[in-house]
Design brief:
Order of helices and strands: HHH
Largest sheet: none
Radius of gyration: 19 Å
Number of helices: 3
Oligomer: single chain
Structural class: mainly alpha
Number of strands: 0
Number of domains: 1
Helix content: over 70%
Strand content: under 5%
Length: about 90
């Protein structure tokens, strides 16, 4: 019984730490990806084009950033779940 409670405690700790690290990684990706896109397209200022109403640039930029954030979120979720599963066994 004591081992089960201890394993559940470790699972909660892994879940909280994994969630915290996950939030930091997702926020980091949200900051880093637009900078990378800006570096990859040096002759185009995406922010200025979006402000001018260029919907094609806005949709491309938004989808690219959203895809990167979702990708990082999936990896973080898998890591948190792996930590929980490791703690419970």
């Amino acid at each position: 019984m004591l081992e089960t409670v201890q394993n559940m405690g470790w699972a909660v700790i892994f879940c909280l730490l994994g969630g915290l690290v996950g939030m930091i990684l997702v926020l980091w990706a949200a900051v880093l990806v637009p900078r990378v896109v800006d570096r990859l397209t040096p002759r185009m200022d995406e922010q200025r084009e979006i402000a001018r109403g260029n919907m094609a640039v806005a949709e491309y930029f938004g989808r690219l950033v959203a895809a990167a954030i979702i990708g990082v979120s999936i990896v973080v979720a898998a890591a948190v779940l792996g930590g929980i599963m490791a703690a419970l066994h």
